[in-house]
Amino acid sequence: MVPHRSRLASLAGLTLMAGLVVATPASADEEAGLAPLYPAPTAENGELAHQVQDLWFIELESPPTSEGTSAARVENEHTEFRAEAEEQGLEYTERLSFDELWNGLSVEMDDTQVSAAREISGVAAIHPVVRYEIPDLDDSAPEMDTALGMTGADIVQSELGITGEGLRVAIMDTGVDYTHPDLGGPGEFPTERVVAGHDFVGDDYNAGNPNADTPAPDDDPQDCNGHGTHVAGIVGAEGKVTGVAPDVVFGAYKVFGCTGSTSADIMIAAMEQALADDMDVLNMSVGSAHSWPQYPTAIASDNLVDEGMVVVASIGNEGASGLYSAGAPGLGADVIGVAAYDNTHIRASAAEVTQSGETVAYMEMGDAPLPPTSGESDELVHIGRGCLAAGDELEGDPAGKTALMVRGECTFTEKYDAAVDAGATGVVVYNNLPGMFAGGGIVDRGAFSIGVTDEIGAHLLELLEAGDPVTLTWTGEEATIPNPTGGLISSFSSYGLAADLDLKPDIGAPGGLINSTYPMNRGGYATVSGTSMSAPHVAGGVALLLEARPDLEAHQVRDVLQNSADPKRWWGNPDLDALDNVHRQGAGMLDVPGAVLATTSLSPGKLALGATEGPVTETVTITNDGDAETTYEISHAPALGTHGDTFEPRFNDSYAEASFDSTEVTVAAGASASVEVTFTPPADELHQMIYGGYVEVTEVDGEQETYRVPYAAYNGDYQAIEAMTPITDGDGVTHDLPWLTRMTDCAVLSGLDCSGDGGSYENRADGETYTLGVVDGLPDVPYVIAHFDHHVTKLEMTVVDERTGRPVHPDRNVAVSVDYVNRSANGTAFFAYPWDGTVTDRHGRVTDVRDGSYRLEARALKALGDPENPDHWETWTSPVITIDRG
Question: Which letter, b or e, does each residue of 849-886 get, where b requires 16 or more Cβ atoms within 10 Å of its Cβ?
């Protein structure tokens, strides 16, 4: 959804790479328990946390039926939970129940009930039901056929005659416009191409809006947003747009309304329906950033693969938020999590420079009026940046003329407004980085506004400096131009690794600037950028692979795709002989013909080495699927690593070494051979380093094809990462979180954002008194404010009586246990945990503590920490809290 590349981090700290020039291309017994277990909705750098308020997953103990548990046992667990919940007086409303892919229920209940629910026998864990947002759109229009060429899907269609015929692909999204002629329409649902589906929510549903968050399902999965139709077109359109697998049929599973977001429990319900409809492939261009592979949508997806369905999911669009930003369900252990690369070409509206005849491809910006389709613009005048709030002065007078401005330093809206206020009749913004862009935020004030490349900007400046008038001639035509960042990882594409150090993403595909189908009542065709667009390239590729090789099992498909993928060079300097991070691109660019025609397979398809503090030896098995004996050479191709701050990683070429027990093996037709690979990690000199590369197996004779196994690891002691950390605000002030806080009057204190309830937070000292009521319209309760630099396996809190120095109920050490806490979204984001003065006993009963003085004690078990090792826990004790209900 980001049409241009933004620089993720300062590269000044790039180590061990002398002279590097960066060409920057365009998530109880009787011990006292806190309620709620999970953060209340709080400001994450201005955005609310992605939990759906008052919705929770209650996970029960047994595996679901897809993992072998009897249906009777699962049903009995649900019945027992409901009975005990009623006996204990738990106040909740059941929403959905699940048994096949995940065992549990989604319920609506107040935060204060969560502690009690956790104590009901048979409850294994409680997770927040998170929101999944519909991705945004951009207005550029690149070519779909060039995207097909990037993966070789066009070759498989035209030269091999493989089109996905006979395969059923599920699209879990905003629905599909089944009337679209490129998708088999017109016609009534179901059609010949959209053969199954269901609307789980209704058009008006929006999980982020309390007034519209009640699903109204029906049988018609018509798309009123556009995203799902776009995704379906990439998978298998046939018409004006040709998708990757144009002869597949679709299942349309509508989990979004026309706008906004959906919830995780609805997604699992759609997964179960796709399984019932006998889909072969599921595409989910949706994700929740910074999450764990243990989240219910990821676990349910893994179980779908066990049932024989290949599951493909976008890895996320949170590249700007740094490492470990990938999201579920793409984080699932058996899911194909997909990264995005920029398209090689862009199709855009075009004009000409009147004086030189140079073609000017441009993109319209925001809601400004469109340029004319004929005639000339007013004379151009260069006015610099136009950032008046930053102290700029306009370099020229644009009154009655077209303002030419350089991108950067302030918002597009500020530039546009400055030019229009000075009398400009139009605005042309040229890029300060290579490539095209489509700026947003501009409100119509009567003057057109367009964005052009840096090269066009330089050409216009050169003409202006010659002293002659310069104008644009409007042609009403389109032009296709090369994209300078084509084939490089997209700036928005999320980084791995997973919090449990699994290697994610798994593979990449075109996702930046993809033109595809769109609902007929909204123009029929549009463009979206994002890993939402890369995932359907892979889902369509899976359909082609399964048509060509129907013997493949669901668990084998990802390995085959990874073996044949093509890793790409680093986005920071493509001319440098350095591969981009494995934990950003996975195995590399999808190569459909390579997978379809492969005569060799490598197992495992990827190697997640974990946290390495010395050499690690792994075994790679080479299977010769061809008809003749083949000799292979085994080698190592390292990739760049990252280190430093989680949120703004730096890059390095401190490579690992790989040695082999044999560098050449000969394998008979139909036979296998194993090679031991010993990885020696780099010297542990760089803070929080992740490294990786590829084991390469190349045929000595014949086609000399190269097959690969990507690997990645954390270098050093994973437990050395500090989880609960201070934050530094925009004014450079460091705050020693966690805090004990209370809501104030929404004067934003200490640089922190207001919460969704209209308040803000400040640190409090010992002895502050709380009534636990409402004061001046705000809850008068203590909050624990916590920032997590890294994921936390478990967060526990207890209530300590200040008089005795012991827990309120000393016969149990832990009152509240929160599993799998996400890292904060950025370096200043935080979570707020309110305490309402209640405790939970071993029977799940919630009672009030007496008025008096208490402390809250928090313990965080680091990611992959050993709960029996005290060094793997971080602890914090609050100041004294005085409860006086009055």
Answer: beeebbbbbbbbbbbbbeeeeeebbbebebebbebeee
Residue from 569, 700, 690, 701 nearest 637 by CA: 569
Q: Which residue has the tokens 């049932």?
A: 307
**Residue spans of alpha helices (H) in 161-314:** 227-236, 264-276, 296-306
**Residue of 390, 263, 677, 338 whose CA lies nearest to 510:** 338
Mean pLDDT of 286-299: 93
Residue 830, classified by CB atoms within 10 Å of its CB into exposed (0-12), middle (13-18) or buried (19+), is: buried
Q: At what angle do helices 144-151 and 227-236 cross, to 10 degrees?
A: 50
CA–CA distance, 485 with 492 (Å, rounded to integer): 13
505 cis-preceded (ω within 30 degrees of 0): yes
**CA proximity to 496, closest of 687, 291, 342:** 291
Query: For 86-116, b where at least 16 C-beta lie within 10 A, e where not — what string?
Result: eebebebeebbbbbbbbbbbbbbbebbbbbb
**Predicted local distance difference test score (pLDDT) of residue 743:** 67
Helix (H/G/I), strand (E/B), else coil: 833: strand
Handedness of CA 333, 335, 340, 344 (dihedral sign): positive
CB 767 within 8 A of CB 883: no
What b/e sequence results for 135-156 when a residue is b if at least 16 CB atoms lie within 10 Å of its CB, and e otherwise?
A: bebbbbbbbbebbbbbbbbbbb
Q: Which helix (H) or strand (E) holds 834?
A: strand 831-834
Q: How far apart are CA 27 and CA 303, in angstroms?
A: 22
Gap between the Cα atoms of 609 and 714, Å rounded: 8
Minimal CA–CA distance to 131: which of 225, 10, 27? 27
Token pair belonging to 395: 């370099």
How big is the CA angle at 527 (ends 526 and 531), to the nearest 5 degrees?
140
Cis previous bond, 649, omega within 30: no
How far does CA 602 lie from the centroid of its chain? 28
- CA torsion 265-260-233-295 (nearest 10°) is -30
The values of phi and psi at residue 872, to 5°, are -90, 5
The predicted-structure confidence for 467-482, as pLDDT tens digits, reads as follows 989 999 999 988 877 8
User: Letter for the amino acid at 864?
Assistant: L
Cis peptide before 181 (omega within 30 of 0): no
How many whole angstroms separate alpha carbon 295 and alpha carbon 304? Answer: 15
What is the C-alpha separation between 782 and 805, in angstroms, rounded? 19
Q: Taking a C-beta distance cutoff of 8 angstroms, is the pair 429, 406 a contact?
A: yes
Q: With contact defined as beta carbons under 8 Å apart, do 578 and 488 qualify?
A: no
The pair of structure tokens assigned to 524 is: 């029929």
Q: What's the Cα-to-Cα distance from 127 to each of 17, 218, 265, 541, rounded to whole Å?
A: 44, 28, 11, 34
How far is Cα 42 from Cα 783, in angstroms, rounded to an integer? 11
863 pLDDT above the threshold of 70:
yes
Q: Give the span between the Cα atoms of 183 and 195, in whole angstroms.
A: 11
CA nearest neighbour of 164 among 540, 534, 533, 538: 540
Q: Write down the pTM of the prediction.
A: 0.85
Q: How many other CB atoms are there within 10 angstroms of residue 465's CB atom?
A: 9
What burial class does residue 351 get, using C-beta atoms within 10 Å of its C-beta: 0-12 exposed, 13-18 middle, 19+ buried?
buried
> For residues 561 and 601, what is the distance between their CA atoms, to the nearest angstrom?
10
Question: Quick one: tokens of 504?
Answer: 């994610």
Please check the confidence at residue 358 and state whether its pLDDT lies above 60: yes
What residues contact 493, with CB distance under 8 A and at least 6 apart? 315, 316, 317, 319, 339, 340, 341, 505, 508, 511, 531, 534, 584, 585
Report how far apart, in Å, the C-alpha atoms of 384 and of each of 352, 402, 408, 732 are: 22, 13, 10, 30
* Candidate from 34-48, 78-92, 612-626 with smallest mean pLDDT: 34-48
CA distances from 171 to 202, 216, 252, 261, 287 (A): 16, 20, 5, 16, 14
